[in-house]
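Let us work through a complete example step by step.
Step 1: write down the sequence.
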Amino acid sequence: MINRMTKLRWRRRLRLGKRQVEDFSINAEEHLDRHLFRRLGRLVQVRRFVVSWIALFILLIIGITVQLRGLGQYYQVFKPAVGGTFTEGVLGTFTNANPLYATNPVDSSVARLVFSGLMRYDHQSNLVGDLAESLTVDDRGTHYIVTLRKNIVWHDGRSLTADDVVFTYQTIQNPDAKSPLFYSWQGIKVEAKDSLTVVFTLPNALSSFKYSLTNGIVPKHLLVGIPAAQLRSAGFNVSRPVGSGPFKWETIEVRGNNPDDREEQVGLVPNGAFYRGQPKLQHFIVRAFHNEQHLLESLNSRELNGAAGLETIPDNLKSITDIKTYNIPINGEVLAFFKTTQPLLSDQRVRQALVMAVDVNAAIKKINSSVSIAKSPLLKSQPGYDKNIVQFPQNIAEANRLLDDAGWLKGKDGLRAKGSTKLNLQLYSQNTSDYTAIAQSLRDQWRAIGVDVKVTLQPDSDLQVSISSHAYDVLLFGISIGSDPDVFPFWHSSQADPRSANRLNLSEYTSKQADAALEAGRTRSDPAVRSAKYRSFLEAWRVDAPALVLYQPNFLYASYGGIFGFDSSLINHATDRYANVENWMILQEKVAK
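Step 2: predict the structure and record it as tokens.
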């Protein structure tokens, strides 16, 4: 227990502590009164002095800040930076990433980013090696030898070898696989000489063969166990594709419950083992838009960094300074193909009159796209093009004379007929703003010389059916020619036969002179010799007038804020916009000069 003495001791200590606190409080009050409150009055007397010093201090801070910013313009600049997520909107539907089946714009875009081919086109449309380190051809032009780059790996880490290349092309050649590339590879022998060497043996010399080596290569170790007949629907194609391209598959997300608002979104990440260097973007997202309006709305709301598949940019978006457009010429042409086997068009005088009746410049002015006029079945950039051998220029008087000589006479209604047969033609084209404008212009200009033309515009899926069956009199359509001048598929008589592989001779044009020239030109490798061979083709084509050449189209690409490293001056296909995608950047950082 606590005794009385202890209690008294604690009380004395408590009273002593209270006195000390009281003394400290009194002393603190005296100090505050003496050193602060009694001196506050003096501040009034020196207020101008204090204010001056404070103002001077503020001005000094402002001056230093302005100076640092000013000097930063001389010693620092903004430069593109690594990182960021690039979101690209593409008009279309995602169905298949496998390059053996990818044909629509979205599928082709994803396949190009995930898979690599033996060859590729650079940003100036030059054919260069991709997986191929070198490509050689023998003197006969029938043996092509491809040597692969060393240490190329698939996204799963397995080595890419010649066996993968052989497997890819033998799968294409297998009719059970049903690849759209099937007909282009018939009769070609593909074999692996060693792990890095592939030999292609052709039945005949073909100077343009190397341009067919740009399709993606697929991994044998992941697909060899799948029957060819089931390959088109394999899970590999839509959920876990493995390639060797600049980006690796990460995920796919499907949004929307009905076709109107449905959207597929494919997420990709950089391939750190990519042979041209790891891409500088942190993520790449491909969004498939089924509706053009939704694509434009997403671009306008800054949800997208880039947009592909648009024909034009609406006026309300053109006024936005942050939206940049790229109009990239494509190695292709838009033509009005005349079905020469149709009785009304079998007379070359009628076809010549249709060509001479058209002012191409006036027709092109009807569309909003920026395009270049074309006048020949060969492009200006190709060997064999001759500016002196092009289609007939506009000549209304001569067009009328030709039709009169052919027996097609104008009636009271201004339209032509031969007896009871009227000169009525059915023009088919795709239902887009550009094609609609061109088709209407052609209709009006041909009506001016007495030819009655009915225009039928179809969605792409329906038009493809019309094209495959050649169910038209005139077809307004665009074709991809490519860098090489081998236009054999479009104008050789063998390609007009219903039994031919693709039946790309849309005019069903037949000419012994043109056939001989096309056959000779595609077997020569020397540009001068090829040009000489193609001269005869151009002369026959001009007189026979199987089509009206209109323009070389551009690929329209829109971006929000610009893309650093995007540098394409000429492309063969829309996916060639990715020629240097590993260098694309969208971020900026300030660095010293």
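Step 3: interpret the result. The radius of gyration is 36 Å.
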